[in-house]
Every structure is written in C-alpha cells, then in structure tokens.
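During the no-cost extension, the postdoctoral fellow (Dr. R.K.) reprocessed legacy sequence entries with the updated structure-token encoder. One reprocessed record is reproduced below for audit purposes.
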Amino acid sequence: MAPVTGFYRFAQTVLTPIMAPWVRIEATGEEHLPADGGFLLVANHLSNVDPLCLCWYFMGRGTAVRFLAKKSMFAVPVFGRVIAGMGLIPVDRDVSPGAVLEPTRRALRAGEVVGIYPEGTLTREPDEWPMAFKSGAARLALDTGVPVIPLSQWGAQDIQGRYDSTIDLRPGRRIRYRFGAPVDLSDLMGEQGSSDRKAVAEATARLHAAVTSGVEELRGRKAPDRVWDPQTKEGPWWEYEQRIAAKKAAKRARRGGRPRPGGGR
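Re-encoded structure tokens follow.
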C-alpha cells in the first residue's frame, strides 16, 4: 500500500486544521485492514463528503487511498492537477466496460489501496440503506484477487444530506465506520475472472450483503428485504429529480424556449 507522501502529504497538512475539529470518526473492525499490500475498500455511499472523510481517516493511518473519478475532471484547470496529485484514478466511460477498469486493476496489482462506492452514486433508497450494487467492484476483485474489505458507514448524511447544498460545519460531527472481515470470494476465482458472469453476479451479491450487514449493526435495525433498484422512479431521489426538471423547464419558459448559447435547451 502507498504511504502518505508528496501532494497527499501536503493535502493532509492543509486539511488537518479543518478536519481535526470538524469530523469525529469512530471506527471498529480495524483489525480486518491488511497491514500491507493492496486491497479494495467497498463502501455504502451516503453523502458527497464520503471520499473526503474516508481519505482523512486513512491519512491518520499513514495510508493513501485512491478513488475513481471521471476522466473529464482531470482536464479542469487547477482542480485537475489537484486530483491527479491526490492519486485519483481516471475513468474513461467512452471505452469498453472491460477497459474502463484497467487503470484500477493496475493500481491494485501494484499494491495500492482503492476505495469504491459500488452503488455508483448516492443511495436512492428512501431510508438511506445501500441500494443495488453495480458490478465493478466484483469484477475488480475477481480479476486481481486482492482482499476486499467491506466498509459500512453511518453519519455522513447528517453532515451533508443527499440533496442538500449546505454542509454542517459545526465541530465534532460524528461518523461511524465498521470494517468487516474480507469477503470470501475464493470459490468464485477462476481463469475467466470477470468474464464469468455468474461469478460476478454472486460476488456482487456477497459484497452487498456484507456492507448491508454492517450498516444494520451501526443502525441497530434490519434492512428491508427488498434491495432498492436505483432506476425506481419513486422516493426522495425521484422527487428531487422532478424538482430539478421543473426548475429547468421554468427557465426555458422564461427564455421563451430559446436554446442556451453553445447549444442545448
């Protein structure tokens, strides 16, 4: 695993006076974290502050965690250099599904720690339980054979809610992490790797179950039997999307239906 050095060390220096009084992370299950070598962190996604807080936690352990980010973000002036310096992994969604994860495979095989949110976006489940996972994390695990550590978290949604533009900056905001035992995928490993669709589906289900079990422990109650499909057009996320669509429609109406400069409506 990569230590905190270079730009990452600089970021830690900048973040310390901000994060130290602001966020209080309580973690259990740290004995499950490998002492060396690469591994994949698989977590539920509650808030836009999730990656920042997780990076901060691992900075305290002297470990750099790499996340995935859209390739286009690396072209943004200044910001692109910052995230490149932080070691984020560019994801080119214009290439084939198999190729899109290749930079992440290389990072894991090189002994890096990679964090991934398999839901692909903030959970849309009405009560903030983990929704259905995409298959990327399972495919990475089957192709690389690295340990997969389930991370269940709770509390970040109280710092910034899913559909809130404001952040609670009061000191002592509490986030709880529960690191589970490595998910056993040994019986699914084979020469086909992620080409084995049945193995990918089963691995994805196991990862979801492990993360959800941890969230149940943190919340002190059982998750719904139904795993939420992110395409379900109901609940808070859909109401939010409808509000955004209504605002855009109102703006177009005020412009008399004229397209915006540069194309689009």
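The chain is about 35% helix and 15% strand. The mean pLDDT is 89. The remaining legacy entries will be reprocessed before the final report is submitted.
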